[in-house]
Specification:
CylC-like; NocN; single chain; disordered N terminus; mainly alpha; 468 residues; 70% helix
Length: 468
Amino acid sequence: MLAKNKTLDPNIEPASLPQAKHLQLITRTYQNNTDSDYTEKIRDLGKEFNYGVNSNHYWGIPELSVLYGTPLYNVASTSQKLALNHLFWVGHYNFIAASEANTSIYNTVTNGVFRQIGNYETLCQELDFETEQESYHIRTFQQIGFKTKMAIVGKAMLGNSLHSKSDQDNNSLFKVLIPEFVRDFFISSRGNSRFSIYRDNTLKAIAKTMLRDKKPYYSQYLRDLEDKGQPIPAPVDGLGGKIAPRYWLKFFTTHWGMSPFMACQYYSLRYMANAMLKNQEYSYVKYFRELERKGEYIPTPTAVSYYHLMDEAFHTTISQTIAKDMYKDFPKPTAYEKFVSGVMIYKMQCSLLSGFSGVLPNHAGGDDILLMLFVYKLLKSPLFDMETKEALDWMEKCFCQEHEGFHVGLKYHQSLLESLQNFFGCLDYQWKINREMGIMTSGASINKALQNNVKIFKQFRESIVTSI
């Protein structure tokens, strides 16, 4: 039963619980989620995973492979293609694991707001339960990922010495050009610099000033951090780490943890993550069902993908319900709240949805220098065992010349675009460019992807040559 707590603001009327369809849907979703055993199956599959048993099977359709459709993939051996299929799964779920760790944080932040409001106890229980589920998902992804990477490439993919060297060179130049007292203000080897502390405190003060009438709803989670003198968490990995710089994430988090509307609006951002996951994961589900129909062996990672999407279906329903319906329980957003929510989604489009990959089909976001570094190290690893020049020549063909991989990437990009347009088109408080996913739409071009890659690869090649 939902708790009959009194709301704190007379302007916020508690929803008529027996009649509110969205609250009935939340209750049914919570009951179905807690009754299912998908999480337990994922946990057990992770514990039992043995790469040797699964190594001679595709874990998804061939196009879900690193470098799929590239000239190099076309000449790869059968064993290399299997490994590329497995590494795609590992990379995909490594990103999901980091993103789900982010979700656990923000579930807790927003949950604190809903608990302060009252009358949403079942929702709070569902969010707590989701956070517990995510911990099992993350552990399983990490178990399978570690064993797979060690079996295929060993320690060859660990570390990032190229970027470390570059950073050291830049820091040396910085020390020569900038006076010491200025460096000490902007940079600290002991943690946050004085500048970053002032900046974060200023942004927090702006948020709290603009939301001062929402103070009674301030999340207990954020209150506890303040009492302990700890900063607001801001992830650097996963989806959260790609939305915006860390100081923006802290700024946004203050809003999500203070305003009932903004707490709901966070779930429109979470829905983007849900939609990206489904766009990537549904192909594994179809592959699972096809193997099951034929009575063929189902690899453990394929089964994990299947049960994970079953779990995440409940989470997606919650995101949709809060973002599209529950926010209407509260007063209409102010101009300031509309502005901040618009900035959030706009930044998400720019940072993660403005392009697509030609070497990682079904991967949101364009090819960048970190992905090029990953492919370079992969080609130098025991899987391909290439010399530097050979690796760079193949990379130029894969990243900078049109091939099937770009067309596959565009296909998945368009599928995700349609899903997000359908969702955000219903949110009348959002900017037009967000309702229509304008930035994402403009990035749906193979020519633009190639132009971007040519420029980035030139920089990457030069950094490799100068580091030798």
